[in-house]
Amino acid sequence: MPAYCEVALPVPLDRTFTYAVREGEQITRGARVIAPFRNEKLIGVITATEATAPTDFEAKYLEAVLDDEPLLSEHLLTLAEWIAGYYLAPLGEVLRGMLPLMAEVRRVVYYRITDFGRDKLAGSIDGDGEAAASRASRKRSEKAGPNEEKFSLERRVLERLASGEPVNVSTLRTATSASLPVLAAMLRKKWIVRETAASERDARRTERFAVLVPDTRLPNLTKLQQAILAELAANGGELPLAELRRRELPSSTLQTLVRRELIRIEERPAVFRLGGIESPAAPLTLNESQFDALASIVSHFGAFHTFLLHGVTGSGKTAVYLKAMQRALDRGQSAILLVPEIGLTPQMVGLLDAAFGQRVALLHSALTPEERTEQWRRIHRGDAPIVVGTRSAIFAPAPNLGLILVDEEHDQSYKQEETPRYNARDVAVMRAKLTGAVVVLGSATPSLESWQNSVQGKYTRIEMNDRVKNRPLPEVELIDMRREFQETGQEQLFSRSLVDQTRESLDRGEQAIILLNRRGYSFAVICRACGQKLECQNCAIALTHHKPSSEDQIARAGQRLECHYCGFKRIVPSKCPNCESEHLYYLGAGSQQGEERLTEIFPGARIGRMDRDTVRGRHDLEHLLARLHSGEINLLVGTQMIAKGHDIHGVTLVGVVGCDHALSMPDFRAAERVFQLMTQVSGRAGRGELPGRVVVQTYYPDHYAIIAASTHDYASFAERELKYRRWMHYPPFGVLANILIQSEKLEETAGWSAEIGKWFQSTAPEGIRVLGPCTAPIARIKNVYRFHIILKAASRKSLNAALRGALVHADEAGIPRRNIIVDVDAQRLM
What we know:
Elements lengths: L2 E6 L8 E5 L10 E6 L2 E9 L15 E2 L8 H13 L4 H8 L6 E9 L1 H11 L4 H7 L9 H16 L5 E2 H8 L3 H9 L3 E9 L5 E7 L10 H12 L3 E3 H6 L4 H9 L3 E7 L18 H11 L6 E7 L5 H14 L3 E5 L7 H11 L3 E4 L5 H13 L4 E4 L11 E7 L16 H12 L2 E6 L4 H8 L4 E5 L10 E6 H8 L7 H12 L3 E6 L7 E4 L16 E3 L13 E3 L6 E3 L12 E4 L3 H11 L5 E4 L7 H13 L4 E4 L12 E7 L12 H13 L10 E6 L5 H7 L3 H15 L6 E9 L2 H18 L4 E14 L2 E10 L2 H17 L7 E5 L6
Parallel strand pairs: 12-17, 12-18, 13-15, 13-16, 14-15, 16-17, 19-29, 20-27, 20-28, 26-27, 28-29
Antiparallel strand pairs: 1-2, 1-4, 3-4, 3-5, 6-7, 6-8, 9-10, 9-11, 21-25, 22-23, 23-24, 30-32, 30-33, 31-32
């Protein structure tokens, strides 16, 4: 009799699957396997090795067992089970996020024709296909319409698959010119089926080097050949080929030198480079508050304990992190440092590289699959006991984990916005509890949930109220934009005070930063005649107006409208699509328009812009920040990216423009987010020897969040905001979840949400308050309609029971699980 095991697969089903194990195969809990599932071959994780034989079906055999030893420790498996239970996420999808090792598996997608496809192909050739035959007899010069073109592509696909043999996707697309959307449409019509195969592959990265051949007599050489040899000689006799290409030295010339045996090519294991901005090691001495903070943290090593490190901006929290990690290393323990977005913190990476060198591993989504696999393996082997990364780094397989640090713990980037929808900050606390580690949550503006936990004594609060070297916090000036309009009679993007103070700072040779927290040139385009707003064709959201980046393309035809949700783009029309009026109005200003206005006001300034349009990857940001650190840029404008973690000592002035628009958003966290953003960006000023100043433009100068941020008074803000939260039973005085129901058909979405809403009205446990169902604030994204139901409860136990009951009812009502998203502790209600 074969043995059986339970396997968690990355599918949207809340269960594991039973598989048979072939004789001689060794299985262990926590190891990866390749398992057949429908027409797919999926990578799963064994969760139980002594499963019983199923009685109602015949279990399939595992395709392959990939690991002799478990890749996930027992505490990580327990953590995965906790995440699956707490966030109501399928266990297989949680485990997939814990194992970023897809580079070790080669997956090939195949397509095969179905009986429906054969019928369609036969009908297009004879019998029922007279219309198709007459169409084929038309003159080839006649231009085919979109439907004819699509049918022609589909027919070519069916003809290519007619033999019945599966064809891999790349071969099929090359042979037929069919796009992936065409194949997806044929799948929906059931003319073809999709299959996958999976097998192991070697994911080790290699790098090719050009190496000088020693003691070689040099013949006559061209100037380019001499240049290559000179470059190699100047760099110790060798250089990576990629580096030679970056220096624009021709590969054909290099091959000539190889043939003449003056250079040889060697392939070596690739060396991963952290990157980041080069920084000196952290100072050896700490001030009194830093030393006290470090002593408190270190005194609890060896047992679970949670600290909230509340330090004002510039108080030296990073130095405490580095010293604490060094103490963990001295004890033979490993440490994990989480940062909100790795692309926004190259300075942190530079500090870690200077302090710990090759003992540091980096984990984040911008790495290639091969790089992530390499870093994960280094951590698993114990070669890199210091781990830094974004939220997924909390799952790093660090052995003997002693310390977890969560920098900027308030940042909403720690909340994953796709399944599993975990919050890395809370997962960090649970992982520390399971492993007996110390966890430190650091921020100048802690989340109110963490603050309240420190008030109740669940977390130990450490205060760092002074900046390093007793530097003063920046003075903040509030500019009432209502009065500004009354006095000037014009709607200006930048106030007179901000312009004057920016000019004074630049004239003194100092640097300035201006926060304009909107991408693009204008928020929206509206027709003045009919009021129609130009919206995305896929999403119920206004398109953002962008100008071309090239200065010589300023004609309307070079401009574009872009959706920041699905990426849809179109040119700016000359007339309103609804009424054909030419009177189009561009509403609001984004960072791109801010850069243009600043260029007009300060023609001699060296201006840079930091937003998602100028910073596509971490290397772009590193280059931009290096220019800022060196003084090449003296005026920087950008979105909230400029507010996080940057330590530029030359910045003495910070301007805040349009930050308070979020106060009008239908979100109970709006005031908290405005306070946090204002405080964080204000903290970029005055971090060097010169004092800083902040100018805040606002239409709500009397709002308590604005006033508290202007006086750097977190305690008063927290007291006022917590009073409101307590009245309304919002977190941290209640728990909240958002159920999102979605479908490509509006009728389905409305019907399914009504069905779940009725269940809550009749069956939901006592103490659950149900808001909805109703259309989500953004009713359609990527052609998917969205309704939501918000649940508020006093206890997590009752909320969890209600959510589980709703999912069981939805399953019984025939609502597919993939069309329901449950977001526990939701950060966004959009």
